[in-house]
Design a protein that fits this description.
Elements (H helix, E strand, L loop, with lengths): L2 H24 L6 H22 L2 E10 L1 E8 L2 H5 L3 H13 L1 H6 E8 L3 E2 L13 H11 L5 E7 L17 E7 L8 E9 L2 E3 L3 E11 L4 E9 L2 E10 L5 E9 L4 E10 L11 E9 L3 E7 L4 H10 L5 E6 L12 E5 L6 H10 L3 E5 L5 H7 L3 E16 L19 E10 L3 E9 L2 E13 L2 E7 L4 H11 L3 H14 L8 E4 L3 E3 L4 E7 L12 E7 L5 E5 L1 E3 L2 E6 L5 E9 L5 E9 L12 H10 L10 H8 L8 E10 L3 H21 L4
Parallel strand pairs: 2-3, 2-5, 5-6, 8-14, 15-16, 15-17, 17-18, 18-23, 25-32
Antiparallel strand pairs: 1-33, 3-4, 7-9, 9-12, 10-11, 10-13, 13-14, 19-20, 19-21, 21-22, 22-23, 24-26, 26-30, 27-28, 27-31, 29-30, 31-32
Helix pairs in contact: 1-2, 2-14, 7-11, 10-11
Protein name: VWA domain-containing protein
Keywords: Coiled coil, Membrane, Transmembrane, Transmembrane helix
Length: 675
Amino acid sequence: MTTSTVLLLLLSVLIASAVSFYHYLYKADKQLKINWILALLRFTSIFLLLLLLINPVISSKSTEINKIPLAIVTDNSSSIKELKADQKALELTQILKNNAELKNKFDIQHYSFDADFNSNTNLDFKGKQSNIDLAAQNLKQLNKNIFYPVILLSDGNQTVGNDYVYSFQESATVYPVVLGDTTTNFDIKINQLNANKYAFLKNKFPVEVFVQYNGTKNVSANFMIEKGNTKVHSQTISFTNASKVQSFQVLLEADKVGIQKYKASIRSSNQEQNLYNNVKNFAVEVIDQRKEIAIISDITHPDLSALKRAIESNEQRKVTFIKPNEVNDLQKYNLLILYQPTSLFKSIIDKNKNLKINTFIISGLSTDFNFLNQIQSDLDFKMSQQKEDFSATFESNFNLFAQKDIQFSSLPPLQNKFGKIIEKSSVATLLKAQVNGVSFENPILTFSEKGANRTAYLLGENIWKWRLESHLNNQSFEDFDQFIDKIIQYLATNSSKKSLIVEHESFYNSGETIGIFAQYFNKNYELDETANLSIQLINNRTKKVKNYSFSKANQGFEVNFDGLEHGNYSFKVKENNSNASYSGSFEVLDFDVEKQFVNPDKERLEQLALQNKGQLFFPNQIDQLIQKLTEKGTYLPIEKSVVKTTPLIEWLTLLILLIASLASEWFVRKYNGLL
C-alpha cells in the first residue's frame, strides 16, 4: 500500500470522526448513551463510503520460474512406414517425452505433422503428404520471441510446402533426427513429370520428365510412355556416378478428343527395392478448338490482312476471305466477319437467318449505314457523309471476358462517318469514342448477346494501325493479337450465360485435396451469395453415392473431398431453390507421393541443422542428443517477477457494510423517536 493511500485513509478517519462528532455529540442537547451509538454508526457509514471511493489496494511481489519449451515434432506421414522407420519413430518419441532429465529442465511439447500440423500424440503414419514447412510456421505462432530447441524426427522428405530449411524462426535451434536407412539403395525413379492439363486436337504437346538414379555404377534404363496398350514413346537413358539426374522433353500427338490417359515408366535390368516410383500416371484433356472464320468483304483494305494475321496467330483458327457474291455454303464457319457491309451482303444475311452464326460487324467509310440499320436491332446509326477520326477509351467495368487495357487511348484513331449512334438494346461496350480528347457517347467496340447469338461491332476502319503501333511500343504483336483472339473466342462460342457455373479439373492425384468451385447467378445474372448448393458424388466402380453441401467461399461456393480412392467419379451439382444443375466427372489417378522415396533426405536435414545452429543426429545417438540438451548453462529457465495487486476490502463487502450501517442508524433513530 502506497504512502498516499495511507494518508487518504487517515484523512477519511478524521473526516468521519469530525462529521459524526459534530452531528451527535457537539450539537446534542443531552449527552445520552444513544448519541454515542449513533455517532459510531455515522462514523462507520462515512468511513466506509470514503473507503469505497478510495479503493485502497495491497501490492505483493513474487517470482515465477518458467521452463524453456522443448518442441518434439514427429513426422506422421506414410513415407516413415514405407522406409520401415515407424517403430523407431514411436520408440524415440516415447524416450524423449518420458526422459526425466528433459522433463525436469524443459516444458515438453509434442506435435506431429503430415499434411496438417497436430498437437496430439496419436501416431499412425498414414498421412498422405509431408509438410515440414507448415510445422515450422505453426511453431512460430506458438513460441513467439522465445529461444527454444526443436527436435525434428523425420526422414526429411517433404512433398508439399515451401523449403523447410529456411522456415524455422531464428530463435529456434533445430536438432533433426534422421528416420530411415541412409544406406544408398540402387534405385531409378521418375522424380517429376510435367504435362499440360489441356492440349488441342492434331497438335503435339510437350511432356517434361525428370528421372533420378541412386547408385554408384554406370547403368542404362528404358523410358517409355504408354497409352492403354499402345507404346507411344520409348528411349534409352544412361546414368553415371557423375550424372545421376536427367531431364528431357517428349512430344506426344493429341489425336483424339477427350481425356487421354498415359503411363510413363522406367526400367533397368538391375533389381530395385522400390518399383512404385518407376511409374507415373498422367492424363491430358484433348480439346477440339479449331475454328473456321470467314472474312467477307467487297473491298480491299489493310485491315483485312491485319485481322487475318492476328486471328491466325492462334493455330486453332483458320481464316478464309470471301466476296459477298461468292458465298455458297456458310455452314462450315464458326464466325462471320462482315467488313464494311453494304446491300451486296443481303444474300449472306438471309442465309444466316436460319444458320444463326455469330457475326463481327466492322464499319468504316465504305459502309452502307442504312443497310446496317435494316439488318440488326442493336444500334441505330444516324450518320452524315462527313468523316471523323475517333480515338478509343477503355471501359474498365466491361465483364463479358477478361481484357486488360493495352493503352487503347494512345493508339492511332479509327476513321468512321460522323454521326450519332444510339443503343437500341442492351449492349456491353469495351471501347468508347473520343474526338480530339473530348468524350463522345458513341461506342467503338461493343457486344450484343441475345439468347445463344452473339454479335460484335467495331465502328471504325484502320485497325491495322493499332497492330503496327502495338508492335512499335512492345516489340511484339502479342498484345494486339491476344486482344483480337479474345474477341474471336467470345464470338466463336454459342453458349449463352448459365445460371450455374462449376469449375473443376478433369483429373486429380490420389492423396491430394479435390476441390470443386461453383457460382450461381440470378435472373439478372448477379452473383447470388444466398444460393443453396449441394453435390451428389458417385464412385463409378462401386456405385456408392454420397451427398455433400457446398460451403461459402470468396465469390462463390466450394466443396472439398479428401481420401478418395483412385478411380472414376461422376457428380451432379444442384441449386436446391431453382433446380438448376450441372453434371460432370473426374478421375483420381493412382499416385501416392509418399511411396516415392527409398532413402531419407539426409542432406536437407543437415542444411536445416546448420541453418538453425543445431546438429544432426541419428537414432542410435539419441543419448548424445539428450546430453547436449541437458548440459549446464544451456536453455536456462526464465525468471519473471510478478506483481499482484488486490483490494484491501472487496467493494461488494464494503457496499453491504455501508448499507447495514446506514440502516442501523435509521432504525436506532426511529426507535428512539429522533425522526
